[in-house]
Amino acid sequence: MARLAPHRILLNLVLDGLIGMLALPAALWIAAPGAGPESRLWWATALPGAGLALLAAGLPARLPTQYWRYAALPDLLALAGASGGAAALFWAALHLLGAWRPANPAFPVAHALVLLALLAAPRLAGRLRQAGRGGAAADGLAPPQTVLLVGASDGVDLFLHALARERAPRYRVTGILTLRARQTGRRIQGRPILGTAEEIGAVLDRLRAEERLPELIVLADGPGLQGDALERLLDAADRHGVPVRRAPPRLLLLDARTGPGAAEAGAARRLELRPVSIEELLDRPQVPLDREGMARLIQGRRVLVTGAGGTIGGELARQLAGFGPAELVLLDHGEYLLWEIELELSERYPDLPRRAVLADVRDEARIRRLFEELRPELVFHAAALKHVPMVERDPLEGLLTNAYGTRVVADAARAAGAALMVLISTDKAVNPTSVMGASKRLAEMYCQALDRQARTEGRGMRCVTVRFGNVLGSTGSVVPLFRRQLERGGPLTVTHPEMRRYFMTVREAVGLVLQASVVGAEDREDRPRELAEGGIFVLDMGKPVKIVDLARRMIRLAGLRPEVDVEIRFTGLRPGEKLYEELFHGQEPPRGTRFPGLLMATPRTADAALVGRAIDEIAAACRAGARRAALAQLARLVPEFAHGAAAADGGAGHRPGSEAAS
């Protein structure tokens, strides 16, 4: 237990007692000018009595433990309660003792008001003195940086309160930009609101002209500062050479302000600003999702996730666990990754029945036995080999995992009586130039055929395919690569200056996957017509992003200058890579749906039995090491597959050890 500061508390008791005594003659003069008692005995007993009355009334309000220079609204409310209580106690004592008292019945009110004024004055003075320390250097430290604070008014207020608690603040807020135009011209804690976040370009131009350009822009808490709005703000800051940082999370600021021992702790705590992350920049407002439909689909059912140790599979497991399945089975071939996600779920959902299974989706006998034993009702198939250059070097492994493994899982799920299987696909399956993309297209074809067959017959397992582009932060993706390269001081490697990719946060992608699962599993009146014919759900990924622009932005977010502090080096396209990824094939034009964030690709399906036999033939060629035969069969099944010569000879054109972002 933390020790109290007895000398400070004793000093507060003495000062409050003196204030109680000083307030009595002032209140008597206000209530009855010139009509005070002449008895010295009255004064000798009344003055200490008034002080004791205040101390007694102040104990329940914890007046002796108040930290004067950090007084806030709750402290002032406590002062008001103690003042009223002390005046009432003193007035009651005069009545009980039959002592002289003013004839004016308003005396207790005047007494309470004088007490409140005298108690509040030194506390407010201490508060103002503490706030004034932020304007100059302290103890030989450098002057505080001037800051333009941007965010919602509540977040701005919390940040200013936290800043005022520092003994020697490193930041001095000179202006505020809020999210609402109607707040312009007003003030928050004395700082002027100069405009809105959307007007930051004009505001910075004006401040530069007035030679008042801030040294730092700090983003306070605010839901509007993400995606495109955040990108515009960063662009304006870049033009003026002003770095941008993010304030600590709201909960940390709130805890510093109101938590146990906040006053003492807050005096020493430093506000730690953090860089803006690229995930925040590329994030978009969350589209409305059918949470009730997801709960209907998942709650009380046995759910299995393949590839549960991966980025998508792991996030699927987290979100599925929140809907209370009867049992959650995590299946992965990687021991460590499987252990990590199982441990995380055991900590977050200790009461959730779950099972971690080490298995390879290509092991047909093992997968069939598992499914027969576990009898999953919902299967989310996220297991895949997805790194394009690595699959180009070992194409047979990619075909066995992505195409044959999908068939194994789908057949086992259907045989075990599963109601729904969801296949996680990729934009690289559209007009593929890589074995990875073509193998995922083959997996799409098989699942589409199974789904069309089930819907035509009116029975059997539904198969929903969901296609989308890159997710931020996934294993082997560009953002973690750039971060590692930045930590080493560069260079950042990009394959081509015109390389573009679609990006989405993993949270948003998985939320939309679950939304597509609900639409695909239920026979709803508003379901897309193309779904009955094996159509593929495609996530609305927004606009593609140039990888070189992403690299420049990450360098700037790190507080560095592209091509000055950190080099960007172009390394050339790798085997199987395309400059532009596509979400729709020319023969599957996109169709809108009634569900935000979801599009539908017009179906291109084949017979399930024919596709299944072809996959078996490819798998047999892969096991025999017949690379050319396997790739030739793949090209026949996926006629749009335009494979380069580098892949046919094992990717000899790839430079071993080179790293580049795609």
UniProtKB/TrEMBL annotation:
<keyword id="KW-1133">Transmembrane helix</keyword>
<feature type="transmembrane region" description="Helical">
    <location>
        <begin position="9"/>
        <end position="30"/>
    </location>
</feature>
<dbReference type="Pfam" id="PF02719">
    <property type="entry name" value="Polysacc_synt_2"/>
</dbReference>
<dbReference type="InterPro" id="IPR003869">
    <property type="entry name" value="Polysac_CapD-like"/>
</dbReference>
<keyword id="KW-0812">Transmembrane</keyword>
<dbReference type="InterPro" id="IPR051203">
    <property type="entry name" value="Polysaccharide_Synthase-Rel"/>
</dbReference>
<feature type="transmembrane region" description="Helical">
    <location>
        <begin position="73"/>
        <end position="94"/>
    </location>
</feature>
<keyword id="KW-0472">Membrane</keyword>
<protein>
    <submittedName>
        <fullName>Polysaccharide biosynthesis protein</fullName>
    </submittedName>
</protein>
<comment type="similarity">
    <text>Belongs to the polysaccharide synthase family.</text>
</comment>
<feature type="domain" description="Polysaccharide biosynthesis protein CapD-like">
    <location>
        <begin position="303"/>
        <end position="599"/>
    </location>
</feature>
<dbReference type="InterPro" id="IPR036291">
    <property type="entry name" value="NAD(P)-bd_dom_sf"/>
</dbReference>
<feature type="transmembrane region" description="Helical">
    <location>
        <begin position="42"/>
        <end position="61"/>
    </location>
</feature>
